[in-house]
Amino acid sequence: MGRVLGRSDVQVVSNPEFLREGLAVHDFLRPDRIVVGAIDEETAIRVSGLFAGIDAPVVFTDPSTAETIKYASNAFLATKVSFVNAVAALWEAVGADVRQVCIGMGLDPRIGSSFLRPGPGWGGSCLPKDSAGLVRIAEEAGYNFSLLKGVIAVNEEQYDRVVRKAAHLVGGSLAGARVALSGVTFKARTDDLRCSPALEIGRHLVQAGATVTAYDPTLRGPLEDIEVAVDAYAVCEGASVIVLATEWEEFRWLDFDKAGSAMARRANVDARNLLDPAALRGAGFAYEGIGIL
To answer: What is the model's pLDDT at position 204?
Structure first.
């Protein structure tokens, strides 16, 4: 950069952030690590000084390695989610309880419980972009990153798995069915729709012939091909199935007897495993979660 500008006092530093949406301030003040990628030591020390007073390990490296740390971290998190989603499909077939399996796996410190939760797939602004970016970098370097390609493929397949669950609960076909989509953001506590698995599921439902009505606490504008309801009960009006796609706490505490009374039939696909299956079934709902029988 200094050569481009004709100045010797300008340096390039890579200082990737590892902030979670909805928890960015907390993560900035209490980071797991600080990564500083610089060519020379003086510049690295000056940048690390910006984080004085923050108690976290500092990794000093070169700019390319710092950028790769960011890509590899997000790709690995995506891998954990895709792995647990893929195995959840197997757990359903053999009758294992996904919740207990995840607890048992997560207690192993080599694995950990973070991101070890089945759901509708991963999304947002970072994991899809960085996973695709790492695949592209590998291609340009002449390496076939088949493992990461499989991670991405499993994630895309997960949308169809959720849609198939909804079709099963309405009798086999979604053609002409009305579906209530609870949540459209890629996760709770954010209004971010970028690469949202909930929205992808909504689009797949429409492609399958369903009429989809959505509700999300942060949604203020229209959605293409998807109707928008004013609240969590209005979205259920005339629906044959609810697809809970974003883990807002509001959905956990719904009066499902009230919601069910507005529906054409009582059925729920809990793509976040947020709800109590016994309570739903007690309210007369046919229920399917992810990896839960």
So the answer is: 98
Query: What's the Cα-to-Cα distance from 47 to each of 32, 44, 95, rounded to whole Å?
Result: 17, 5, 53
Give the burial class of 44: count Cβ atoms within 10 A of its Cβ; 0-12 exposed, 13-18 middle, 19 or more buried: buried
Q: What's the one-letter identity of residue 184?
A: V
pLDDT at 110: 97
The predicted pLDDT at position 2 comes to 58
Fold of 66-151: N-(1-d-carboxylethyl)-l-norvaline Dehydrogenase; domain 2 (1.10.1040)
Q: What angle do CA 57, 20, 49 make, to 5 degrees?
A: 35
- How far, in Å, CA of 273 to CA of 107, rounded? 20
Place of tokens 């996760």: 187
Asked: is 158-288 a CATH 3.40.50.720 domain? The reply is yes
Active site residues: 126
Mean pLDDT in order along the chain per 10 residues (293 residues): 72 95 95 97 96 96 97 98 96 89 96 97 97 97 98 98 98 98 97 97 98 97 97 98 98 97 98 97 97 85
